[in-house]
Write a structure and sequence with these properties.
heterodimer, A: 270 residues, alpha/beta, 13 helices, 16% strand, B: 241 residues, Pectate Lyase C-like, six-stranded mixed sheet, cell cycle (chain B), septation (chain B), Probable septum site-determining protein MinC (chain B), MinC_N (chain B)
Chain lengths: 270, 241
Amino acid sequence: MATVIVVTSGKGGVGKTTTSASFATGLAQRGYRTAVIDFDVGLRNLDLIMGCERRVVYDFINVINNEANLNQALIRDKRVENLYILPASQTRDKEALTKEGVEKILNELKQSFDYIVCDSPAGIERGALMSLYFADEALVVTNPEVSSVRDSDRILGILASRSRRAEQGDEPVKEHLVLARYAPERADRGDMLGVDDVLEILGISLLGVIPESPTVLQSSNAGVPVILEEGSDAGAAYSDLVDRFLGKNLPHRFLVTQKKGFLKRLFGGN
Amino acid sequence: MLLQSSPLASEEPPPFELKGSLFTLTVLYLFKLDRVAIERHLTEKIKQAPGFFNNTPVVIDLEGLHESRDGVDFIALYELLKGCGMVPVGIRNGNPKLQAVARLAGLPLLPESRSTSPARKPEQRIAEPVSTRGLIVSHPVRSGQQIYAPNGDLIILGTVSAGAEIMADGHVHVYGLLRGRAQAGMKGDLEARIFCQGLEAELISIAGRYRVSEQIGSDDWGKAAQIHLADDRLIIDHLAR
């Protein structure tokens, strides 16, 4: 049976789409058939981050409205096998997302996929609610900053009360924390919240810490999920995150300030 | 709303002033214009509570009245209500024809009430809630969630996040950190208290007396505490851990 995972945060600009793209890519790289759906109807971005914006013919809303079938709308990723993208419509708004329509598409995807990743829009309105309603698990993306943490807390409350699992009294949605844009040296200086502060406020398990990295911006502009940037901190962190999600017990990296070695200090390397 | 005209220097102070004020009035929802039935029901009500309608001003609501075509004899209705101790002061709703008749009878038309809920049928009664058992919440209360325990205590077995609101008519217990807003004694119970394992609240309130986070001293911040009222002031006492 396929697992539906929502990537959500409440606040905008914290790295939901970046996380969705890398997480889905990572699952597919490890051999799982994975579909990633952009729920941000009207503000379509996932296709850009995934580098498939020039191959969009039909979208999510077309399928909901029976104007196209799912196979016509799914875009197969060129780099990674088993990975498919269902883009959002740029010309419609969130009202086009109906509970019945979303359920129909998810049920159809569940027939042939192992994981379905739902990239939530920011906010707590219809688009966000629809993206989390059918979720089995949730990646809550947070930045080490108080307003982001509070919005994540809000989303956790909604997951616990307004998801289908909550409404039907099933086992609750499994919640994972993804702490993105983390800069250990700034946390050490007290400029941003530390990992422990965030964990203490939100009280859910930590799936991964993604370090602040210029590679994230470069790769999203290039349309490459950052997990494919081997050798970058952020890519490695996402890779660990996927392994941890699949049950591997890996220690968290990038939590402490990298001390410059003696030679580096001597010769001013960076 | 003061409509006092400024007196000229040479004039006496004015003999009156006009001010707006709000009153709570009894509304009589009329469903049927059956004088005999109205009289019988009113007599019965008075028997149950003698003196209840002692010169009580009432507003007659005509929305539920369907036999409007025959018109309403407001004079007769007025006398009937007056005879039972009520003083009709105006009407509400009804069609323009009824309203015109009422005006002739000296009853002004009052604006419609803002609530759109239809008048309760006379035979319906609100069940008096009797449960005084507490409400137990075993999950953390997240930002944006609101939990109210009517007629009893509220017990939270986890942390109450900033941006969450918990309320009870009785006591509030938090077996975790209290970071949101907590209100005890919502219906005015001055004996209600708030208990928490760590006080970092945005607001604490008992029977309407409140303190915001800024007014909680640093000595009390983060401590296990109970909050109660003494001489109408909120008192924070530490609890031994």
